[in-house]
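To assess whether ligand presence alters the predicted conformation, the chain was also submitted together with adenosine-5'-diphosphate. Input:
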Amino acid sequence: MNFYHSSVKRINMRSAVQIIQDIPIIDNLLKVICRTTGMGFAAIAYVTPEQWLACAVRDEIAFGLVPGDELKIETTLCNEVMDGRVTVVIDHVAQDQKYACHHTPAMYGFQSYISAPIIMNDGKYFGTLCAIDPKPARLNNPETIGMFELYAQLIAFHLSAEEQVLVSGALLANERRAVDRQTSLTEELTSTNEQLNITNEKLIETNKRLAAVNDQLKAANHRIEEREVALRLAIDAAQFGTWFIHSVTREFITDARLKELFGYLPEEDLSIEQALGQITDEYREYVAHKLEEAIYHNGDYDVIYPVIGKKDGILRWLRAIGNLKSDPTGAFSAFTGVVMDITQQKQAADTLQSAYEQLRLSKEAAQLGFFDMDLKKGTMEWDTRCRELFGISHDLPVTFENDFVIGLHQEDRERIITIINDAFVKSIGNGVYDVEYRTIATGNGQLRWVRAKGQVYFDQGDHPVRFIGSVLDITEQKLDQLRKNDFIAMASHELKTPITSLSGFLQLLNKKAKKTGDEFAVSAYTRMGTQVKKMVGLIEGFLDLSRLDAGKIHLDLQRFSLNELVLEVADLANALYPSHEVVILSPASTMQLTADRNKIEQVLSNLISNAVKYSPMGRVVKVEMAEGENEIVVNVKDEGMGISSENLMNIFERYYRVETSYTENIAGFGIGLHLCSEIVKRHNGKIWAESELGMGSTFYFSIPQHL
Ligand code: ADP
């Protein structure tokens, strides 16, 4: 209803004249009124409490009013009609008690007057239908009044209809506008909808991205959680103590492990001051200073210090690492960190340091040189001493070909390169490298003897990746050895003739004593003969060595039965060493061998005599033969003292003897096994030993069946 009242055009002062004028019957109606009543002026007026407006006029008396003219309301009688909503009729003003003195008739000069209210269908007051005349008239009768009121009603009906039309039009217009608005709204809505659709799609897209981001966030969160768990586990596993210094309260919050590291019980309070109190005197100030620095100057906090536990009195080396957290203004907000017990590492590091120091000192004392080859990169590093041993004067990086190979003595070159190549094959020697060679300095041609020991390291595919080792100048020892060898060779040579003649004379004396029946002399000569034989054996050994050095050992190859040879040697040994029993573990078949019979005999008797020498009386020595695919393997097993693994590696070296209280009293020069190994090597065979201290040893040698 509000809408109706406010927006629909109703009849008003501006539209009233036009509306009345538009009623087709108006002029006729006013004309009929004037005719039937005899009045000279008739009008339809729009009347409100403020105004009187002439809408239609029939003026036959030259009253002078035209449609659109206004009168002041108070000058008219129409307000009375309006107020009372009744028809006012004056037949003759002069004779009318009420209006004779009324200002309106006087003002407008009329004697007769009739005015009926025009009341619209909705009860609204429009105005009046009135008529005046300067002469009196007969109006106050039911017919005239009835006619007047009927006309007024007719006008009201028209007006109502008109207004209805207006209202309907307005409503229609409103409706149309509403429809238009609806249409444009619909259009707007459609385009808005389209935009909405686009926006929606974008939204869906964005949502998807958001969902993806969300998923990532969740995953990241999950990872963070996992990491936190992992971190906690790591902290627990690593037995770290954790601490936290509150920025405002400066409260020192620690876990039980940290307290334990400072020798406190889990339920005890531990302040920073108390913690500092457990740090040893020399370190306390330093740690306190570091802590202050870290907090106030945002410095790094990573300190190592010793602590004496409060309760347990244990000295622990701790490493504390802290992390300062600043708030957005950069101010210290919290200081957190971990403490770990590094006592063992510290001790290990100290031991390592002193080991390094010792190594450095021994390296210096022994004048050891070091080399390191990176076989993947193809680079080689030599320290100063190593360079010295090769007489290298340049500072450039060294290379295998230009420095190592060139620096080797010509006679050693091929042998050493073969050994190195073999060392690079894991299956051959497991990367072990232990050689002696000569170097010739590039500058002055100086000759040096060098002992090199090293190890080749392999990757998972058994490819050599690194070769590290040390070199030692053994020139002096080597020259000494050469001199010793020369001396021994000379002495042995000189001793051989007198001892041979001594042996001959002893045999003669023995025969003579047997003839005379001098039993004491026979026994004495026999013992002397045994000793002289031993001396001859030793001298033979030395002579063999010198022959070896001079390259004078030649193999006299022949085909022979190994079984027979072993039997011979065993029989002889049993005769020579009645204190032990030499047993042959009979082979399944007879084994034929092509080799130097005498030299193989020498090897066998050497191994058997050692087995006897190095095992207590009454023990058994077993000799066993076995046939491989292309070789024959012989082993001599004893139940003697055994050899430790470190000695086992060296026993085939010349003059090497195991120094123990037990071996002290056993005669020997450490040349027997060396000779054995040289003989076997010359037969392209191998010699080795297995042993366990106190349990006995087994010596093996293998000879290819066909040389
Ligand atoms: P030696 O003349 O000293 O016996 P060898 O060259 O024959 O010289 O032996 C070298 C060293 O090896 C010996 O000094 C000894 O310590 C050790 N050895 C050799 N054979 C045996 C064995 N069967 N049992 C224990 N040790 C042995």
